[in-house]
Amino acid sequence: MALANELGIPEDAIELRFIRSGGPGGQNVNKVASAVQMRCDLKLWPALPERVRDRLRTLAGRRLTADDVIVISAQRFRTQEHNKRDALERLGEMVTQARIEPRIRRATKPTRASKERRLEGKQKRGDVKKGRKVSHDW
Predict the structure, then answer these.
(1) Which of 8, 19, 30, 77 qualifies as a cystine partner to 82, CB 3.0-4.6 A?
(2) 3-state SS, residue 37
C-alpha cells in the first residue's frame, strides 16, 4: 500500500475486502473474488486536520457511513491487484482534493468605471431602439 503511505494514511485505518464482481465474465466470475471493497476509517486517522476531514466527508457523499468510514468499491478490472490500486488511487484523489483550501469569496462593490460603462451601454442601446421608432405624420 505504497500510495496509502504517500498520503499519510495509517495502515490500520484501511481495510480491504475482496468480493465477487458482478456483471458478465462467464464461470470464472462465480469463483474469483476480484472486486475490492475498501473501507477507510477516518477516526483511525488522527493526523488528518479537522478542516480537511470535514471537506473529505463532503466529497465522500453517499460513500460515507454513519460510523465515519469511507467505503470505495472497485471492480473495473479483472484482477484483485488492479482493483486494489484503483480503489487506493480514488481515495488518494479524494484526499488530495480535500486538502485544497477553497478560496473565500469576498463581496466587492462595482467600480465607478464599471458603473459608467454599464450606463453608457444602456444609453447606446436606448438610442438604437429610438432609431427604430416609426413616426406617423397624419
Answers:
(1) 77
(2) strand
Question: What is the structure's pLDDT at 23?
Answer: 62
Instruction: Assign 131 to helix, strand or coil.
Output: helix
pLDDT tens digits, 87-128: 888 888 888 888 888 899 999 999 999 999 999 999 999 999
Give the dihedral sign, CA 89/54/70/15. Answer: positive
pLDDT at 26: 61
Q: Which residue has the cell 479524494?
A: 94
Q: All 3 cell numbers of residue 126?
A: 436606448
Residues constituting the chain: 138
Residue 104 maps to a domain: no
**β 69-74/14-19 pair status:** unpaired
Query: Which strands make up the sheet holding 14-19, listed edge to edge?
Result: 14-19, 35-41, 69-74
Query: What is this structure's pTM?
Result: 0.65
CATH number of the domain within which 71 lies:
3.30.160.20
